[in-house]
Structures are given as C-alpha cells and as structure tokens.
User: What shape does this take?
Amino acid sequence: MRHILRWLFFIIGLLFFSLGISITINVQHLGIHPWDVLNVGLFEKYGFTIGTWNIVCGIILLVISYILDKRYIKLGTFFNALLVGLFVDLFLWLDFLPQATNLWTDILILLTGIVLMGFGGGTYNAAGVGSGPRDGFMLSISDKTGFPIRRVRIITETSVLVIGLILGGPVFIFTFLFTFIQSPLFQYFYMKISTLINYLEKPYLKDQRRSA
Assistant: This one.
C-alpha cells in the first residue's frame, strides 16, 4: 500500500508539472524555462511535437546518466522521461488552457504555470520513486566532475538555452527569472509533500512492525 501511495503522488506531481509547462508554453513570448526553450526550438525547426522532443531529450539524458552513474536511474525516471512529454502534448491538444492576450494578464498566466511546475516537481520528487532524467543527468555530471550541483545546473541550462535560442526557441525576461522563482517553490513543496507522505505512511509502517 505504501508503494501505491508514493506512485499516486508521483503521477499527480507529473500531471501538475506537465500542466505548468503547457501553461507557460501558451505565453512563451514572455520567456519559458531553458529546457522548454530547447523543446520549442526543436519543434519550430524540425516539426514533430513539443512533447515528443521532451521525450527524446529525456531519453538521451537518461542514457548518458545510466552510463555515468546508474544510482540515479530508477523506474520512476523512465516514466518521467515518457509521461511528461505525453501529458504536455495532451494538455496542448485539449486546448482548454488560457491563451496569450498580450496584456498584463499574461504575466499572471505565466506565474501560475511556474507555481504549478514548482508544485509538480516538488511532489513527484518527494514520492521518491525516481527523479527526472534532467536532474539525474546533472547529479551524475556533478559526481563525475566534482563540481557543485548549482554550478553544473547553471552550465547545463545555459548551454541548453543557447542551443534552443539558435534553433529559434522563445527567450525573454522570464527565461532568466525561471530558476530564481521556481527553485524556492520546488524546495518548499518538496519539504511539505515529503512530510505529508511520511505522515500518511505511518499507519502502514505500524502494521508492518506488528506483523514482523
């Protein structure tokens, strides 16, 4: 039952994370996350869908992480690499999300997407069944090089941003503010959801001790 609980939070987290990505893509003229700049740039240059490129990039990073350090690869990592892209395409295809108006309300729409991404990312990581392929990639690079994770993250996302910009991806002011806004939200929700999961698991842990 504990495993079901954690996988439930994992799926919920992926859904909200993907929803947040989809919302920000709809107001991309304000700037989106560097990884999404790359995905949109690949979509604009080569076609397919934004979600498809999310999956392709995720699988490439997953393979690299597997080669460098298998510790960061769990079952949830594979599901993350596949489901986020599928959910993003689904949300965009359903076409029910707020659209860009080129008014100040677009900023509210974008901030809503960032909050949902922070909540979703914190939730699926708190589930503990596997982080995202991008997180695993950066942790693997950090371990192999000895560089702090923060430095690896900055270098990686800057490189991704430059490639995405060259491909024609949308870059604007919020692209550079994303990490400063989303990271604290991610940390906050990660701690809160972790505490909630641990609380909900207590009855099952007690039952296990009794039956042992």
Q: What stands out?
A: The longest helix spans residues 173-211. Helices lie at 2-26, 34-46, 50-68, 75-94, 105-126, 133-145, 149-166, 173-211. The mean pLDDT is 89.
